[in-house]
Every structure is written in structure tokens, then in C-alpha cells.
Design goal:
The complex is a heterodimer of chains A (143) and B (81). Chain A is of the alpha+beta class and 143 residues long. Chain A has one domain: Aldehyde Oxidoreductase, domain 3 (Alpha-Beta Complex). Chain A is built from 3 helices and 10 strands, in the order βαβββαβββαβββ. With 81 residues, chain B is an alpha+beta fold. Chain B has one domain: Roll (Ubiquitin-like (UB roll)). Chain B has 2 helices and 5 strands, in the order E-H-E-H-E-E-E. In chain B, strands 2-1-5-3-4 form a 5-stranded mixed sheet, with no helix packed on it. In chain B, strand 3 and strand 4 form a beta hairpin. The chains are: A alpha+beta (143), B alpha+beta (81). The interface between A and B is medium-sized, with 33 and 24 residues.
Chain lengths: 143, 81
């Protein structure tokens, strides 16, 4: 399962999805929205994606992970639209026969998401907002 | 020939549009299209921005040649996770 959602992501549902009788491990990664960034107080976040390509990219990341490690099942769900502080913006779950593969695939997936998934986060502060870009670390104002 | 361009995030705000159709010369590349769009929408010229390029939902280089009806997206720095 590789998809975007406007709704809060349910971890239990995803763990259920990857549960597999051949698995001896399930690893999960939850990215959560922080209330601060570089000394500024963040009051809200908003994600915008190129949805068709973003979901395709998540599926590509899943395929690559399955090539690299022996994985039973895998799911990645990423939020779109406004996300409250402290909520999960992304959840990755991987099941595998042995724990090393599940841990490694989780780590791989979040690093790939941050490099190549066409999705953008706008942070709203008191008195301003900014699109965050991790390719260069640059911070760009909207106008 | 015509291509469809979609704008997202900072480029959508700067262009003031989510999607445009653009008439371009046969043989134009992604880089050619970007130069023309910057003339149409001068605010797209964001100093120091590093873009990635997608044609029909695959990443490409900027010297990729375009075809009629391609969907082209200029991808500003991503920030998922």
C-alpha cells in the first residue's frame, strides 16, 4: 500500500496490513510534525503534492526496497493538506522474516522520500510562512 | 506542438496558476520550455532555486526533448517526511 491521504493515518491499520505469518519482525517509522524549526515557532503545516507522481514514487521506493532486502510486506502512507502539530505526516511499516531487513527498509524509505518524493511542506509561523526544501536546505518566501 | 505544464508549491504561487498549456517549437527541450515560461511568468525566476524535472511523471534531465501533449512539471526542492 503506497498512497497519500487527507485523513489522519492509523498505525494499527498499517501494522495489520503488513502482518504476515512468515514475518518475524515488523518495523515502523512515524514522521511527526514538530512545533519548531530553526528557532521559529511553527503553528501549522500544510502538504501539497504532485499526487500521481508522488504515489508512483512511493511505489518505486517500495519496489527498490524489495529488491534490496527480503521483505514480506510494506506500506507507506503520507499526509496531504493541513496537518496538526504532533500528528503523523508519514508512516512506513515493513514486515520481514528477520529484523535487520525491516529496520533497513524503513530507514531507506524515509531517506528516499526526503530526496525524491514530489511533495512540499509549507510551515506557517506567527507572522509568516515558508515552503521548506530539503534538496538544498534553502528557505524560499512565496513572493 | 503543445505541452501541459503543472505548477506546485512555490512555483504555483509564483506563477499564479496550477496548470497551463504552452505552445512550443518541435524539438524543444525541458530547458527551452523553462526559459519560455520564465518570460511568461517572470516571478518563476527564483534566485538560487534548484529544480528537478519530470515529464509524464518520470524524472528527466533538462536536455530531454519534449513531445506533443507531454505533461511537464518543474519540481522545486521537495520536503516530504
Amino acid at each position: 500500500m503506497f498512497r497519500l491521504t487527507n485523513q489522519p493515518i492509523n498505525l494499527d491499520d498499517l501494522v495489520g496490513y503488513v502482518t504476515d505469518p512468515e514475518a518475524g519482525a515488523i518495523a515502523t517509522f512515524i514522521g511527526t510534525t514538530r512545533n519548531n524549526n530553526e528557532g521559529r515557532k511553527v503553528i501549522a503545516l500544510d502538504y501539497e503534492a504532485y499526487p500521481e507522481m508522488a504515489e508512483k514514487e512511493l511505489a518505486r521506493i517500495g519496489d527498490d526496497a524489495k529488491q534490496k532486502w527480503q521483505i514480506c510486506r510494506m506500506a507507506i502512507v503520507h499526509r496531504l493538506g493541513p496537518v496538526q502539530i504532533g500528528e503523523a505526516s508519514v508512516i512506513i511499516v515493513v514486515s520481514s522474516a528477520h529484523r535487520d531487513a525491516a529496520f533497513a527498509a524503513c530507514r531507506f524509505a524515509i531517506e528516499e522520500i526526503k530526496k525524491t518524493m514530489p511533495i512540499w511542506k509549507k510551515e506557517v509561523y506567527e507572522g509568516g510562512e515558508v515552503w521548506i526544501g530539503t534538496q538544498t536546505g534553502q528557505r524560499l518566501n512565496p513572493s | 506542438m503543445k505541452v501541459r505544464v503543472k505548477f506546485f508549491a512555490i512555483l504555483r504561487e509564483r506563477a499564479g496558476a496550477s496548470e497551463v498549456e504552452k505552445e512550443i517549437a518541435v524539438g524543444s527541450t525541458v530547458a527551452d520550455l523553462w526559459r519560455q515560461l520564465q518570460k511568461d511568468y517572470p516571478k518563476l525566476d527564483v534566485p538560487g532555486i534548484r529544480l528537478l524535472y519530470a515529464v509524464n511523471r518520470d524524472y528527466v534531465n533538462m536536455d530531454q526533448k519534449l513531445n506533443d501533449h507531454d505533461e511537464v512539471v518543474f519540481i522545486p526542492p521537495v520536503s516530504g517526511g
